[in-house]
Amino acid sequence: MIDKLAASVAEALTGLEDGATLLLGGFGAVGQATHLIEGVIETGARDLTVVANNAGYGQVGLARLLKEGRVRKLICSYPRIAGSTIFEELYSAGGLELELVPQGTLAERMRAAGAGVPAFFTPTGADTSLARGREIRRFGNRDCVLEEALYGDVALIEAWEADRWGNLTYRAAGRNFNPVCAMAARLTIAQTQHLRRDEPLDPETIVTPGIFVDRVVHLAYGDPIT
Amino acid sequence: MATATTEWVPLSRHQIAARIAQDIPEGWYVNLGIGVPTLVADNVPKEREVVFHSENGILGIGPAPEKADLDPWLINAGKEYVTLLPGGSFFHHADSFAMIRGRHLDLCVLGAYEVSSRGDLANWARSDDDTAPAVGGAMDLAVGAQRVWVAMQHVTKSGEPRIVETCRYPLTARASVTRIYTDLAVLDVTPDGLQVREMVAGLSLEALQEKTAAPLRLAADR
């Protein structure tokens, strides 16, 4: 019988290694797998590369992981938000490598990884300093920059509802990067607000099919943690 | 005695937003940037259906909620709480940016530090060595939307022109902006340069030119 349920955050994170690339869902506080991210601290993993839209805020989730010194490199579109003080301190002190990626390119690089597309050209950013030193080709009347797929070792995502097959739904703006991260990592771990252990989700409403999900942990913590 | 008057009043942020809203027809799919652009939504008449898109996966954004109706799972790209209008939908980030990059949006309204006379846009970083830069969806929107309009103050706080021959700030995209709405004027970016469509009452073209670091002429069809 297929059963992707893990009994705890620690069990869900088994096998996470030093130097891993982590893909994190979430946009601001909404749809962020806060408990899994904080669970990474307990595993002791370090020298991590973290891919996320934002660089954490306050003292929770990614901000805590950064503060603990576990992250070597951040691949991010909008690191500076209200409350991102831990990121700002680390970055200005030179304690963190930052690769800044336009938000759509960040999503598409992960989608490409999940879809087996090793690289693609896009006009986004081609005329800017972010394309410095990169391959540019002209398609039609537009310069385009070559962008490579962004693969993860582990994706940490948050769902609204899950079943034992790893099928997932999301709530409102909580969807954001989660389905994209799910398809781009070798190991995808979801924390879910609601669980249907044996009763399958309605196949017409599933957003992320279980093929993209390896482990599910049930954490009914309620509203986004701000 | 009649004298040449220099008495003109710049538009407020809300008035700039209201002026932009006049030009958005029913049925358009529109993304609004942070700041003055966000205010545009409140100025579209209720009977005119315009669908607002948010980068984080929402079509059909409505006004801010009353406290009692606040849904903590429903935020916009500026991470403010919003509502969803009938006909709205949720989708993931790759689809959201497929809408932007795949040229499905009719319009994007953005703020800017500078715009050049060729429509080059600078709105994401103040310098090449910005201490903690953030780009977000600015570059995707600037190349992807069918039309890019800018809402901004005509000059900086110290009176320097923001409409220039060549941007000094780092570029977001080249030849992107087609129309500029400022507190003083509405300008079209055309292959023949900047054309003034409107000015606030009492402002002369000469006075506007003094505040603009690129040549202006009046639009022939204004």
TrEMBL record, chain A:
Which key words tag this protein in UniProt?
Transferase
What InterPro entries does this protein's entry cite? 3-oxoacid_CoA-transf_A (IPR012792), CoA_trans_fam_I (IPR004165), NagB/RpiA_transferase-like (IPR037171)
Q: Name one GO molecular function term.
A: CoA-transferase activity
Q: Gene3D superfamilies in the record, alphabetically?
A: Glutaconate Coenzyme A-transferase (3.40.1080.10)
Pfam families per the UniProt record, alphabetical = CoA_trans
For this protein, the parts annotated as crossing the membrane are none
From which domain of life does this come? Bacteria
- Full protein name: 3-oxoacid CoA-transferase subunit A
Instruction: Name its species.
Output: Nitratireductor indicus C115
From TrEMBL, chain B:
Domain of life from the UniProt record: Bacteria
The record's Gene3D superfamilies line, in alphabetical order, gives: Glutaconate Coenzyme A-transferase
The record ties this protein, via SMART domains, to: CoA_trans
Example of a GO MF term: CoA-transferase activity
Output the Pfam families linked to this UniProt entry. CoA_trans (PF01144)
Instruction: Tell me which SUPFAM superfamilies the record gives.
Output: NagB/RpiA/CoA transferase-like
Alphabetized PROSITE patterns for the sequence = COA_TRANSF_2
Q: Which UniProt keywords apply?
A: Transferase
Family annotation (InterPro entries): 3-oxoacid_CoA-transf_B, CoA_trans_fam_I, CoA_transf_AS, NagB/RpiA_transferase-like
Q: Record's NCBIfam families?
A: pcaJ_scoB_fam
Q: Which family does it belong to?
A: Belongs to the 3-oxoacid CoA-transferase subunit B family.
Name the record gives this protein: 3-oxoadipate CoA-transferase subunit B
User: Could you tell me which species this protein originates from?
Assistant: Nitratireductor indicus C115
